[in-house]
Specification:
By secondary structure, the chain is an alpha+beta fold. It is 29% helix and 20% strand. It has helices at residues 14-27, 42-47, 92-103; strands spanning 3-7, 34-38, 55-58, 61-62, 80-82, 85-87. The protein has a four-stranded mixed β-sheet. A two-stranded antiparallel sheet has the order 5-6. Strand 5 and strand 6 form a beta hairpin. Helix 1 (14-27) crosses helix 3. The longest helix has 14 residues, at 14-27.
């Protein structure tokens, strides 16, 4: 499983989100190798298709179902839609469910 964690260091939700991601990975015995990419400016955000901080991609797929790349890339903090409500930090349960949807339960241990 390839995990990309893109973030802007100015976003206050980065550390808690990363901790929740690590917890979700460990809890399920999934490989915990996370490739972190610091997004420092708008040009880099555009090149990386950065949807806000933090952006998590599993095997190249954004964690948020139905997230669509847009022309409006930014360095702002990201909001996730969890149970129909906006949240600044994705919960461990949300992360687990999203990862399962992307990689499938039987493939989560594979790289």
């Amino acid at each position: 499983m390839k995990i990309d964690f893109l973030y802007n260091p100015k976003c206050p939700h980065t550390e808690e989100t990363l901790q929740n991601l690590v917890t979700a990975l460990k809890k399920n015995g999934w490989p915990a190798g996370i490739h972190s990419v610091q997004i420092k400016d708008l040009n880099q955000a555009k090149r990386a298709h950065f949807l806000g901080s933090p952006t998590i991609r599993i095997n190249g797929h954004d964690l948020q179902e139905n997230a669509s790349p847009s022309e409006r890339y930014s360095l702002d903090c990201r909001t996730f839609l969890i149970d129909g409500k906006p949240a600044s930090v994705p919960t461990v349960d949300f992360l687990e469910e999203a990862i399962r949807k992307i990689v499938g339960e039987s493939d989560t241990g594979k790289n």
